[in-house]
Prior knowledge:
Elements: H1 19-41, H2 47-54, H3 58-61, H4 63-75, H5 79-86, H6 88-108, H7 112-126, H8 129-140, H9 146-174, H10 179-182, H11 184-199, H12 213-232, H13 242-264, H14 278-308, H15 313-320, H16 325-337, H17 343-361, H18 370-385, H19 388-396, H20 404-442, H21 450-461, H22 466-504, H23 516-522
Amino acid sequence: MASAPPSAPAFLPPPPLSGSARLWGTLALSTATFMNVLDTSIANVSLPAIAGDLGVSPNQGTWVITSFGVANAIAVPLTGWLSQRFGQVRLFTASVLLFVLTSWLCGLAPNMSTLIFFRILQGLVAGPMIPLSQALLLSSYPKALAGLAMALWSMTTLVAPVMGPLLGGWITDNISWPWIFYINIPVGFGAAFITWSIFRKRESQTRKLPIDSIGLALLVIWVGALQIMLDKGKELDWFHSGEVIALGIVALVGLIAFVIWELTEEHPVVDLTLFKKRNFWAGVLALSVGYGLFFGNVVLLPLWLQQYMGYTATQAGMVLAPVGLMALLLSPLVGKNIGRTDPRRFAAFAFAVFALVLWMRSNFNTQADMGTILIPTLIQGVAMACFFIPLMTITLSGLPYDKIPAASGLSNFVRITAGSFGTSIATTIWQDRAAMHHAQLSEFVNSGSQATQGALSGLASAGLTPDQALGTINRLVDQQAYMLAANDVFYASALIFLLLIPLVYLTRPTHSGAGSADAAAGAH
């Protein structure tokens, strides 16, 4: 009788790195993360230029942001399965190289449809980059330095939103918008080369696992249908269009089928049983709604400044850039004290500051100078520092250690999806409210109005024909209408942030039960 084959030796994780290897490894992983996060914000100030160059409206241009976000969100839950199938180092390196390739294709795109297709591909291949950069970084440091590792990593994700608008604006004004994608090529190649050189002998264990292909297909169907419905709704007059109704039905039926399938599947692509935990569902809801509001307003502000306030892309970038300065200074302080203070206090404070910032913006007028517009942006950094880590600490608290990766992946999926939805909803409401304000303001522009007659006489004396004079007045009405509409969106967002504060206190109190390093790891 043949003897049984000897059992394979137990897999031992590699020891921490030291010296220059750890320094270069940290630099390469952080650079790849920086490049990924940069791509979510660099296009914000370039939207009018991209839309104008490709012959579409700036509203349709927001697809450049939402398509990347949705594809990225769908790919995040697959990271666990892919890394176990191919290994963390191989998957991360491949993800970075494919990101470089899709960035190059985005820059070459000849029309909006092609650009959106390549942005979807870019979002899909980018999915594993952030979770795996965290995992590889934590494996490079001793357990005692895990907090330091995540603090270093978090710095890159806070600097990127500062650099994105500035870099995007400068490139758009001084070179051309495709270069916001081309700059990823040297950065990505460098990060991939260094990562592979240092980490290839530290590959994680691989094994064949079944993939929940039906769950994944249903996820793509319902999220994709809902995003397309939100993006095309304004253009097609919402539910007066058969296409929008069909997309809504597909999204609803797809969501119901997805929930039923995932709750009965042995190896689900998304573990929905996590929503049984009160801290998890309340934390995810507060985090995703808050992030959706934040991201929607971050996209809306540069659109308004460039289209109706005469700002260049560089100037709009300068207005947005300081948002990360206070966050950069205060995040280490928040991370240090998160274990000693109730995280709910930090989160409630963040929502109150976000509400204050948006209330200040709701009082803007067309005479507002750059200094006035910059002040709320600076204050917003305080809210950002107290937003991610405390809410992730609440969300992951009380979960067993083996559930942390799935919970982090699911919360990231919901948050990124909410960011894309927030962009679509904010720009749609802005357009609708602007149309309403335009109609109301136009009522005052008539032949019986002394102000109208005075304005027309002044424009005529400046050498304008009657048609040119009316066109000038219409542009002024447009400017006021879009300003009032932006104020409406800012004010409504401020109220919703205040309503999120009681939601935070629905959670049970925790003192970093999931571990501050795990919380920080999930925060981005």
